[in-house]
TrEMBL record:
The lineage of its organism: Eukaryota, Rhodophyta, Stylonematophyceae, Stylonematales, Stylonemataceae. It comes from Rhodosorus marinus. Coiled coil: none annotated. This is Uncharacterized protein. GO terms for biological process: vesicle-mediated transport. It holds the Pfam family Sec1. InterPro entries: Sec1-like, Sec1-like_dom2, Sec1-like_sf. It comes from the Eukaryota.
Length: 267
């Protein structure tokens, strides 16, 4: 796909989203980015040309459409993310709201192989998708505890009324059971990947490189991680990239040793 085609696709996509949301925005963009400026100008012209499509009744105050250039922040995409949604995307692969758990993920022999993660139909996921891994673990525990209380209440069916209520509530009970099993399974798989790939250690070094200046110390730490068989090739590459970005203006970054170490690590 040519650059002009990609550019037009971006315009078409933004235009379609605005129509779907029935919003005519105020457009602001990163002044230092020619690309953002071009997108803003082209989208503004497109809206003017199709102004009759934006006559939305009862429209509220115009929202802000902010266009930013990813080149202004090359560091953030290299950092490991620790929210439920981001970790599922990165570590297990979330596609079309589905996570396929194969043998490669280490899932057991149970019946959970493919799970659906959709905030529109899963209240627990909607409430937790942007929470960090620690908070997620606590909330999954609360979810399990709540279900156990509900499950114990079904153990005593002494009267016909008790039985009738259980039958009436069984579909919801079964749905809750499946949902609890799903999130416990996903949390377990994420925990396995975190431990297997030393992600806590990797993330700690990433944050330290991004926030603190200590070229010699960081170089030694990165070289140490390059030798670790547990750290993935992708994370090793990210660490070298982070180091090179952090110390790109330093006189001697010792990148030669890091590049050689990376080459030996990934082949």
């Amino acid at each position: 796909m040519s650059q002009s085609s990609q550019f037009e696709r971006v315009i078409d996509g933004l235009f379609a989203v605005l129509l779907a949301l029935k919003k005519q925005p105020v457009i602001r963009f990163d002044e230092s980015s020619p690309l953002c400026r071009n997108i803003a100008e082209r989208l503004s012209v497109r809206i003017d040309q199709e102004r009759n499509l934006f006559n939305f009744q009862g429209s509220s105050q115009a929202p802000l459409l902010l266009l930013l250039d990813r080149k202004e922040d090359p560091v953030t995409p290299l950092l490991n993310q620790w929210t439920y949604e981001a970790m599922t995307h990165e570590l297990l692969t979330l596609k079309n709201n589905r996570v396929v758990l194969t043998e490669s993920t280490g899932v057991g022999t149970g019946d959970v192989r493919e799970v659906v993660l959709d905030q529109r139909i899963d209240d627990f996921y909607r409430r937790n998708m942007f929470l960090n891994f620690g908070e997620l673990g606590d909330n999954v525990k609360h979810l399990v505890d709540s279900f156990q209380v509900q499950h114990r209440s079904t153990d005593r069916l002494d009267t016909i009324d008790d039985m009738m209520k259980f039958v009436e509530n069984y579909p919801e009970f079964k749905k809750t059971s499946h949902n609890v099993s799903k999130h416990v399974t996903l949390l377990s798989e994420l925990s396995k990947v975190v431990d297997r790939n030393r992600l806590l250690d990797v993330s700690e070094l990433e944050q330290d490189i991004a926030c603190r200046e200590s070229a010699v110390e960081h170089k030694a730490q990165v070289l140490n991680f390059l030798k670790s068989y547990k750290v993935t090739k992708e994370d090793k590459l990210k660490l070298v990239l982070l180091y090179s970005l952090r110390y790109e203006r330093a006189g001697d970054m010792h990148l030669g040793a890091l590049i050689q170490g990376l080459y030996e690590a990934v082949g």
